[in-house]
Amino acid sequence: MTNALILIADxxxxxxxxxxxLLTGAGYRVMSAATPQAVRQQAGQQPxxxxxxxxxxxxxxxGKEGLALLAELKMQDLPVILMTAWASxxxxxxxxxxxxxxxIQKPWNNQQLLQLISQQLExxxxxxxxxxxxxxxxxxQQQWVAESPAMQQLEQLVQQLAPTDAxxxxxxxxxxxxxLLASRLHQLSKRSQQPLVAVNMAAIxxxxxxxxxxxxxxxxxxxxxxxxxGRFALAGKGSLFLxxxxxxxxxxxxxxxxxxxxxxxxxxxxxxxxRSQARIISATNADLQQLVQQGLFRQDLLYRLNTFVxxxxxxxxxxxxxxxxxxxxxxxxxxKYQKPPLNINPAAMQTLLGYPWPxxxxxxxHTLERAVLLCQDETIQPQHLMLQNNQTNMPADSxxxxxxxxxxxxxxxxxxxxxxxxxxxxxxxxxxxxxxRLEKYPMQGSH
Length: 447
Description:
Elements: E1 5-9, H1 13-25, E2 29-33, H2 36-43, E3 49-53, H3 64-75, E4 80-84, H4 89-97, E5 102-105, H5 110-135, H6 149-161, E6 168-171, H7 178-187, E7 196-200, H8 209-214, E8 215-216, E9 228-229, H9 231-235, E10 239-243, H10 253-262, E11 264-266, E12 273-275, E13 279-284, H11 288-293, H12 299-305, E14 308-311, H13 322-336, E15 343-344, H14 346-354, H15 360-374, E16 379-380, H16 382-385, H17 389-392, H18 401-415, H19 420-427, H20 431-440
Parallel strand pairs: 1-2, 1-3, 3-4, 4-5, 6-13, 6-14, 7-10, 10-13, 15-16
Antiparallel strand pairs: 8-9, 11-12
Helix pairs in contact: 2-3, 10-12, 13-15, 18-19, 19-20
């Protein structure tokens, strides 16, 4: 987290000055406090991290003042690193048990302190993202809609697999909700209080693959100005979600396979091995068996990923879920655009039920977003949906997957004025992923 705000709490003027110079030089914003009263006052500004001395002038050895302040800061959900010149194992254990993120003894090593701060800030950001993912599963936010027989069958498997540590491979077309299913697996698991870390395998440049997944040491390569914690380390004892794993180039697959087989990895520029304890959840819309036959995906890697396979049904196979999905999506959109609650005209609902949804729930969301913006009263009409009649009336089973994907790309290109970046945004994929599909389905006019 660049530009993070750090509170230095220490009664020693020289200590505060030294830390201010070190941290501002590393790009952090800094404020300081010399007394417990000042710490309480400054904490009201919600710093991103607190460096807390355990002993102030009234009590220079026991650490009681620091532990009392720690309890108050913990109530404000502020991450704390404890500092003391009178370190002891017992005191460190007390501080960690009472909620401190870490513990450092004076005098400190500058590089080690900066690395510790960087790691804790990344961990804090990760926790915030994890909390956001948890909220996706709250009833008032986004429910797991499983009214249809196809989803009921999937839900039974989810309930069985979620509490285990088995690797899970999620299959499904674009827009079916694979990331939401990964979140649900994590939240129903025994690891739900640990981080859920997601990484889009299709979006990582090949040259940064190892640094992104395994981390890197300062100076390991050009522009590596600070050490960085990789996704495997950030996941800790939680879950690591490898999205679009089918896009991983063959030359990078052995590097992922090694850590999945042995659990061991090294940060770029380091010789120290680390061990991953994360549960692996992966997802793809690709046919991995076909890629194995074509020599584009390692079979031993597939075996490591697909201990269990869950396949999300396309939206056209779960029509019973569409009304509830629509209501849920519209509630969120009305809040987003500050509009009163909307209803769907029966004719408009029939249009939605008859459409094949090649883009699945993602396309449904985009369609309803347009409709909410266009609707000027309290009821969405068929014309607000802007769905073509010839597409609406076309039976779902008259198109194969390739044809549906091609049609969806054509729609996105038309809506974006043939702009690839905007079309990719409408489709919910990266520009690179769209470019690969255009190589598969050449179309005129895109640029």
